[in-house]
Design a protein that fits this description.
By secondary structure, this protein is mostly helical. It folds into 2 domains: 3-115 and 171-319, no CATH class; 117-161. Helices cover 78% and strands 0% of the residues. It contains 17 helices and no strands. Helix 3 runs parallel beside helix 14 and helix 11 (172-190) packs parallel to helix 14. The longest helix is centred in the last third of the chain and has 27 residues, at 293-319.
């Protein structure tokens, strides 16, 4: 699933579990956001930049799985270790009285939480159907965006009378914020700022694959943290295509997948670096939990920088 979709329900789930266990929400919420972006880098549909890059450069679902997938798995394990070590104090002395917890929450059977089994099976069936189409979209000649919209439409059509209520619960404030952010970054792109950055990367690299891939990775990571990763990925695609045509066709894959990893995981650094970050923090705020930029960046920036160093090594080992 797309990392944004994951955060919509995982953020609520994390908050509910942490409240029951009387554990702090922030470590688990940040761990979830960063993990969603890392996991999203593994497939073409996992993160919005991958959809942009894959669609524009004609990559398939399996191209991403085989190129970015293994790196994403290694970085995910590293990220888990980082968060455990950073917050190890809360795991050494957890303030959890299990007997008291079960007394306060008598019914903790998972299946009792399902209030509409019919809707559950409809949603799961559509989900499996949608994922199947996403994997086969290239062979079937389907656009990734069309597959996603079709899945949502099927749920709305067959979901029953609760669907209007579901539409009302959509977080329109977050959608408008993202739309405004894309407009502002679109202005920078139209003014040529992003193209200037992209061209500078290529000129400094001067055909050297080690320098070029390293520059693409770090510039895309830093730019995504400050601007949002989707527009920067879109601005870089024509540059990557042009360089591969003028130098060597073999450079296309390394540059494209390096860009994807830089944009996806570099976006972890700030609350606005990726759409999933914005959505996850918005869900938390609706539950009365506000995370400041200082609280977020204090943990996320070191995690991102260390992850980028690891990715840099893995990319050069794979392609250089």
């Amino acid at each position: 699933m797309d990392s944004i979709t994951v955060l919509i329900f995982m953020a609520s789930l994390i908050i509910e579990v942490c409240v029951i266990l009387k554990m702090p929400v922030l470590p688990f919420l940040l761990g979830c956001i960063t993990s969603a972006n890392i996991g999203g880098s593994a497939t073409m549909v996992g993160d919005p930049p991958n959809i942009v890059i894959g669609s524009a450069l004609n990559f398939t679902f399996m191209d991403f799985v085989t190129n970015t997938g293994p790196i994403a798995v290694v970085v995910f394990l590293f990220n888990i270790t980082f968060f455990y070590l950073w917050y190890k104090k809360i795991f050494k002395h957890p303030d959890i009285d299990m007997d008291k917890m079960y007394e306060e929450h008598e019914d903790l059977e998972p299946h009792h939480a399902v209030t509409d089994w019919k809707l559950l099976w409809i949603s799961l069936s559509v989900f499996v159907f949608t994922v199947t189409l996403l994997v086969l979209h290239h062979s079937l000649g389907l656009i990734v965006a069309f597959v996603g919209i079709m899945g949502a439409t099927l749920v709305l059509l067959f979901g029953g009378p609760k669907m209007p209520e579901l539409v009302e619960k959509i977080d329109w404030h977050t959608l408008l914020f993202l739309a405004g952010l894309f407009v502002m970054v679109g202005g920078l792109e139209h003014a040529g700022v992003l193209d200037t950055i992209a061209d500078a990367i290529i000129n400094i690299g001067d055909g050297n694959i080690v320098i070029t891939l390293t520059l693409i990775l770090w510039v895309s990571a830093i730019s995504s943290a400050l601007l949002d990763n989707v527009p920067f990925a879109a601005a870089m695609v024509p540059v990557i295509r042009g360089v591969s045509e003028s130098t060597s066709a073999s450079m296309l894959n390394p540059m494209a997948f390096t860009l994807a990893l830089g944009c996806d995981i570099g976006g972890n650094a700030t609350p606005i670096g990726a759409s999933a970050n914005v959505v996850g923090l918005a869900v938390a705020e609706k539950h009365g939990i506000k995370v400041t930029w200082k609280e977020y960046c204090k943990v996320a920036i070191p995690a991102m920088v260390l992850a980028m160093i690891l990715i840099n090594i893995l990319i050069l080992w794979t392609y250089a």
